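TICKET #2291
ISSUE: user wants both folds in one file
ATTACHMENT 1:
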Amino acid sequence: MTFMPASMPATFLRRLQLFFALSRTPHGLIDMAAPAVAALLCLGRFPSLAVTAVGLVTVFAGYTAVYALNDLVDYKVDRRKADAGGLRNAGSDLDAVIIRHPLAKGILSFRAGLAWTGGWALVALLGAYWLNPVCLYLFLSGAILESIYCKLWQVTPLRALVNGAVKTLGPLAAVYAVNPSPAPLFVVTLFFWLFAWEIGGQNIPNDWTDIEEDRRFNAQTIPIRLGLPRAALIIVGCLVGALFLNIAILWVSPLSFGPVFMIAAVGINLLLLLHPAFVLGEQAQAAQAMALFNKASYYPLANLVLVLLRMAYEA
């Protein structure tokens, strides 16, 4: 009889942890709230059990694959950063809960990362096709745009617009998974709501925290090209827009949100987006940019909780 060495489970878990670090799984799990809230706001109720189950697996696979794809495409650039003493773990960075860029640091092989990404991408493709072929096309578009976004790092700060579009495609796919013919007004409002949140609450603050390292490598980001005061103005402008678009998406949803829930939505925007954005504008420090990034990361989850509470209240 063959016994498994006691160290094997621990070794497997440590190895799995590296793959989760490649896919930034802690952040990815939080990001899964965006497709969930989009689907519920569009449908106004829970979808069937089969659609829910396949949807959850597909969303997890999609986020896992696309986040890992970022590191695969950026592998050479990240290796240069690592060799120059960059890519240090930032303890408060939500994307670095485990370890940042395990491929570039040589902790995980490129071949292993490629196999991991390809496997989850296949799961996402199959699930997306089962839900609705439109979802498959949106996933493929997201993967292509993510690759383009990475390649534009030293080309133009307008790459942020590409990233904003990428972050909307998962929620849009969730909408088409539960409703093959959603209202155009809902789709447009959803797109610009999440686009504004991503640019103001995620992309620019994240680039702000990396500004010194990015300068060394001649990166073309909004904080570098436009300066921190203008970057702060863009952040605030996007997040004010996200507040109004958040109210608009609740208004056009089949769910009816009364004054209490609307006030709660405003509170979420103030707490997670606008207050940390104004603090960043006043102090203009990397620590405040990271605080905004981390708080804004929970924004879709907070909206999901709000929607679930509304549905529970109706029931």
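ATTACHMENT 2:
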Amino acid sequence: MVESKHKWKAWIYLAPAIVLLMIFTVWPIFNTLRMAFWNDYSIMKDLGGSLDFQFGFKNFVKVISYQGFKDCLKNTLLLTVLTVPISTLLALLIAVCLNAIKPLQRLLQTIFFLPYVTNSIAIGMVFEAMFNIVGFGTNNPSFGIINNILGVFGVDPINWINAGSSYWANIAVLVVYIVWNALPFKILILLGGLQSINKQYYDAAKIDSTPRIRVFTKITVPLLSPMLAYVVITGFIGGFKEYSSIVGIFGEDMQAVGGESLNTMVGYIYDALGNQEGRASAAALILFAIIFLVTMINLYVSKKKTHF
């Protein structure tokens, strides 16, 4: 407990952090709210002092009624709904396997964690090369590693990301990339949870000759439910903020040549920042509202299903 006469020292120590938070967190949030509810906001007119303040929801109406935003929302929801369950289930299975393997366990943990510390744009470029068809449309195309692997099983080459590729082929590539990129963090969290479970539960199950699948469903999953709830919630938050993976694979256009746009809500916000700051702010608040609503739903469900 800090004595009252020494509280000023605590405020001095906290001052640098408070100043940085005010500049880079509090003020941007306030400014976003201001621009979102300022009809026909223009940063150039605002800086010149020639913009009259008119409170309203015009920016929100324009964003919601714009077809491009609806497409971005559809892409974001689709990628989130597909990737979060798949990545969570795979992370759980891999974490259980890693926890059961004693030799080379730390080495394997390091290998699985490597994608988490690798630049996402660089990883996207690698995935682009894996799915790419060099010389597509010519008489002698060169296929990426994915099509070469499929060829071993007698599957004809698939146009994943080149000109003329289908929307769902593009989505499949993005799902594979996002799931692979999300696994390390989730594996780390779930593996830490597994290693903290009291071994007495497993010893009792072993004495009763309980089948492994029943041990997994009745002991491992319930006792791991707090960590599972955490990775699901953070997975949904990360899914709604997806952007860099698409840029890494498809470039700044965020689509295959002649294909359907794969832009997301975050991409829409970035695109609007150049000359439509009011709409960008409104879209950012809409994204925040969606993430907040989904997070509250997840928290409510996790309270019913989580065992502490």
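RESOLUTION: both attachments delivered.
EXTRA DETAIL ON ATTACHMENT 2: The mean pLDDT is 85.
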